[in-house]
Amino acid sequence: MTGKARGRKSIFITGGASGIGRATAKLFHGKGWFVGAFDLNETALASLAQELGNDNCITRKLDVTDKQDYENAIAAFAAETDGRMDILYNNAGIGESGWFEDIPYEATMRLVQVNFIGVLNGIYSALPLLKATPNSLCFSTSSSSATHGMPRIAVYSATKFAVKGLTEALGIEFARHGIRVADTLPGLIDTPILRNTPNRTDGTKPTEDQLKSQTKGTFRLMPPEAVAEAVWGAYGTDKTHWYVPPELVWIDRMKVFLPRYIRGKIGKSLPGSE
Ligand code: NAD
Question: Is 261 a catalytic residue?
Fold first, then answer.
């Protein structure tokens, strides 16, 4: 063994510098895993490397939309893990909100590039390592907005449906390689994305008070560690979709039997509909 991982299990995380990715990096580090954290944000990556210890991780700038950059990042990771990867965690993502026509075309294209093409880049690039690692897991962050199409984040929601569909299909396809495929559908998670995504229609962002007052129900504000626990749970089982919180699954189930009721409830949650 020549790499820093020294035979430890390893996870490759995109969007690893912040929020859900960072919480996952810390949780797996705590369980004795070797962590690869990749992100656009080099400053936050440097502070993560300091927290985990340089011997226990590899951190590197990566733009998931750049296939060549992705292949180079995977090669750098493979050099530390002797060609192994126990989990690929496609987690990097961005948001866009507002009525469909208020979001500039270029911003929508970037959204699709990061949230969906970035996942495809990851899977194409990491597949040889996942194939070479017994019991490996290809895991991605979808969203609760992939239970029912969500207005005012319509394309964001569509990218997350794409990730969810890809997960289901590849779960069946990759069984022949011995690779499991799963995803998480988080509700409202307390991370910077909630604060950094302006509403293109009215220019507003949710205030701290608004976010912190979400204490009840399925869309209560939850810590990123709750999603990290789902990633950990997914490594131990064959379950495909990890809803955080688990009761989010009811939106998926109820829309089949009560589509009008669900549409009405989502419609009523829009501003100005009270
Ligand atoms: P976050 O903003 O804290 O983290 C996202 C990270 O992705 C950031 O560090 C950012 O620099 C990185 N990133 C963005 N574009 C990138 C690119 N092109 N290449 C590499 N890295 C890039 O937010 P988060 O909530 O931790 O988001 C993680 C994932 O969870 C995203 O896919 C998001 O869509 C999803 N999600 C979040 C919530 C929530 O409520 N926070 C709910 C459902 C799903």
Answer: no
Its domain, for residue 60, covers 10-269
Domain assignment present for 116: yes
Q: Which of 70, 89, 156, 235 is catalytic?
A: 156
Pocket test residue of 193, 195, 210 for ligand 1, highest count of atoms within 8 A of CB: 193
CA 272 to each of CA 42, 103, 149, 191, 227: distance values in angstroms, whole numbers, following the listed order: 40, 19, 19, 26, 32
pLDDT in tens, 70-121: 999 999 999 999 999 999 999 999 999 999 999 999 999 999 999 999 999 9
Give, using CA atoms, the residue closest to atom 31 of ligand 1. 93
Dist CA 3 CA 7 (whole Å) = 8
Which pLDDT value is given to residue 274? 53
User: Residue 208 has what pLDDT?
Assistant: 94
Domain count, the chain: 1
Q: Is 36 in the pocket of ligand 1 (CB under 6 A)?
A: no
Evaluate whether residue 4 is within a structural domain. no
pLDDT in tens, 14-56: 999 999 999 999 999 999 999 999 999 999 999 999 999 999 9
Helix (H) or strand (E) holding 39: strand 34-39
What CATH number is associated with residue 262? 3.40.50.720
**219 phi and psi angles, rounded to 5 deg:** -100, 40
Shortest-distance atom of ligand 1 to CA 186:
43
122 lines ligand 1 (CB under 6 A): no
Q: Give the pLDDT score at 36.
A: 98
Q: Indicate if ligand 1 lies below 6 Å from the C-beta of 146.
A: no
Burial of 270 (0-12, 13-18, 19+ CB in 10 A): exposed
Whether residue 22 lies inside any domain: the answer is yes
Instruction: Compute, in angstroms, the gap from residue 94 CA to the centroid of ligand 1.
Output: 5
Q: Are 188 and 221 in contact (CB under 8 A)?
A: yes
